[in-house]
TrEMBL record:
The keyword Secreted does not apply. The keyword Mitochondrion does not apply. This is Trafficking protein particle complex subunit. GO terms for biological process: endoplasmic reticulum to Golgi vesicle-mediated transport. Core component of the TRAPP complexes which has a function of guanine nucleotide exchange factor activity for Rab1 GTPase. Plays a role in vesicular transport from endoplasmic reticulum to Golgi and autophagy. May play a role in dendrite postsynaptic membrane trafficking. It is found in: Endoplasmic reticulum; Golgi apparatus, cis-Golgi network; Golgi apparatus membrane; Postsynaptic cell membrane.
């Protein structure tokens, strides 16, 4: 069981804090000879697998590294176009690492804003007056849990579907936010949270939640 990440979104839908706590590794690195037996294409400025699956490499996986050098979007570390590089027989044999692409800061900002809108839509669609909005989204690989305060701040936790004690963890994160962000004289409301004590106590709370599940009284 694991807690993957934490997001804090202000009442306007802006992402003011994000922490990647645990990212499951699903990368696959293989050495290929020419011609490449996978079909690659450009998607959202990334080179991804469009057709062909083998040895843990799946459709949708992105090219993360070539010959041990990290790939940035569609370009290698030394600025070469990935598709052009892989179309040249002289560059083979070549070692390629595939995996799920890492979200950029801009993508995280956009997704937080999208969830803020979905939360509002969920609240408006509810047949009951005063609905709190979306509190949990479930997939086969993770659950997204959301807690909104009375002032409109949203705390979101992405965790393994089997992880227990998330409701208690969300309340604990709210306490940490109140103690170490709101009481910080240098912190401005609705602005990004950059408080070392907030970071430290949040990470400790995530570790406790993973090991022990729910928080007890006085924790």
């Amino acid at each position: 069981m694991a807690i993957f990440s934490v997001y804090v979104v202000n009442k306007a839908g802006g992402l003011i804090y994000q922490l990647d706590h645990y990212a499951p590794r699903a990368d696959s690195e293989k050495t290929f000879s020419y011609p490449l037996d996978l079909v690659l294409r450009l998607h959202d400025e990334r080179v991804v697998v469009a057709f062909g699956q083998r040895d843990g490499i799946r459709v949708g996986h992105a090219v993360l590294a070539i010959n041990g050098a990290e790939v940035n979007g569609r370009f290698t570390a030394d600025g070469k176009d990935v598709l052009e590089f892989l179309s040249n027989p002289a560059n083979y044999p070549v070692s390629i690492r595939f995996g799920r692409h890492r979200l950029s800061s801009n993508e995280k900002l956009m997704l937080a804003s999208m969830f803020h809108s979905l939360f509002a839509i969920g609240s408006q669609l509810s047949p009951e007056v005063g609905s709190s909005g979306i509190e949990m989204l479930e997939t086969d690989t993770f659950k997204l849990h959301c807690f909104q305060t009375l002032t409109g701040i949203k705390f979101m936790v992405l965790a393994d579907p089997r992880q227990a004690g998330i409701d208690s963890l969300l309340r604990k994160i709210y306490e940490i936010y109140s103690d170490f962000a709101l009481k910080n004289p240098f912190y401005s409301l609705e602005m990004p949270i950059r408080c070392e004590l907030f970071d430290q106590n949040l990470k400790l709370a995530l570790e406790v939640a993973e090991k022990a599940g729910p928080f007890g009284p006085g924790s």
